[in-house]
From TrEMBL:
InterPro entries: KsgA/Erm, rRNA_Ade_diMease-like_C, rRNA_Ade_Mease_Trfase_CS, rRNA_Ade_methylase_Trfase_N, rRNA_adenine_dimethylase, SAM-dependent_MTases_sf. PROSITE patterns: RRNA_A_DIMETH, SAM_RNA_A_N6_MT. Keywords: Cytoplasm, Methyltransferase, RNA-binding, rRNA processing, S-adenosyl-L-methionine, Transferase. The keyword Membrane does not apply. It is found in: Cytoplasm. This is Ribosomal RNA small subunit methyltransferase A. Residues 26-196 form the Ribosomal RNA adenine methylase transferase N-terminal domain. GO terms for cellular component: cytosol. It comes from Ramlibacter agri. GO terms for molecular function: 16S rRNA (adenine(1518)-N(6)/adenine(1519)-N(6))-dimethyltransferase activity; RNA binding. It holds the Pfam family RrnaAD. Gene3D superfamilies: Ribosomal RNA adenine dimethylase-like, domain 2, Vaccinia Virus protein VP39.
């Protein structure tokens, strides 16, 4: 999407959490990490002013984009190679998107609105069977939590619920001055690749278990998860004389499997 001097400048909307990527060096680095190839079925969430969209579609040939902002969606429709889905991403059925395109799995990318990044991640978790990989720009502190190891202060509910299902890595640091307007936080890019054979577990039960465990993260689990496990009739071995952040993902999953 070339820069048309007659085109009015889009003003970023705070309610949509809009910060537009403007640093060409960072854009190039993100595209290298995504490594788009011709014909791959890809969906971009929140294309905005198309800073990332343009280099992606040049390499792919076609690209689906999900944009909630009506004015931006209208601009994007002027690009013949873009399939524009004007919608709230939290209401988009990614399983149906894959089926409509006649493909088993989609590649999903985007500069996610920071004010709803966690809900988007959990929404996509419902469609993970139809996702090949995900590359997202997020607040660095959110990515730190996503990829955190046990026994660290960043390790929490987000770490467990995503690490159970994805292999993840922080692949790129993005400073505030890479955006217009600059956010007040550092950003980063995360790569998320769903495991081919994840542990089979009741996701709702795992979610409840993890939520109870981290509800009072400073206290030992005897006072929180211990009581919850008793109520559920858990008869297995589990050390409740430690804090939630000391329990590995595989242990949480094993307890949820034993309860199911």
């Amino acid at each position: 999407m070339g820069s048309d001097p007659h085109r009015s400048k889009h003003v970023a909307r705070k309610r949509f959490g809009q910060h537009f990527l403007s640093d060409q060096g960072i854009i190039d680095a993100i595209v290298r990490e995504i490594d788009p190839r011709p014909g791959q079925p890809m969906v971009e969430i929140g294309p905005g002013l198309a800073a990332l969209t343009q280099p992606l579609v040049e390499r792919l040939g076609k690209l689906a984009v999900i944009e909630l902002d009506r004015d931006l969606a209208a601009r994007l429709r002027q690009h013949a190679q873009l399939d524009v889905v004007e919608a709230d991403v939290l209401k988009v059925d990614f399983t149906a998107l894959a089926r409509e395109r006649g493909v088993p799995k989609l590649r999903v990318v985007g500069n996610l609105p920071y004010n709803i990044s966690s809900p988007i991640l959990f929404h996509l978790l419902q469609h993970v069977g139809h996702v090949q990989d995900q590359h997202f720009m997020l607040q660095k502190e959110v990515i730190d939590r996503m990829v955190a190891a046990p026994a660290t202060s960043d390790y929490g509910r987000l770490s467990v619920m995503l690490q159970w299902r994805y292999a993840m890595e922080d692949v790129l640091f993005v400073p505030p001055e890479s955006f217009d307007p600059p956010p007040r936080v550092d950003s980063a890019v995360v790569r998320m690749v769903p495991y081919d054979q994840p542990a089979v577990v009741d996701e709702a039960l795992l979610s409840e278990l993890v939520q109870v465990a981290f509800s009072q993260r400073r206290k030992i689990l005897r006072n929180t998860l211990g009581k919850w496990l008793e109520e559920k009739g858990f008869a297995g071995e589990f050390d409740v004389q430690r804090r939630a952040e000391e329990v590995a993902v595989a242990e949480y999953v094993a307890v949820a499997q034993a309860l199911a």
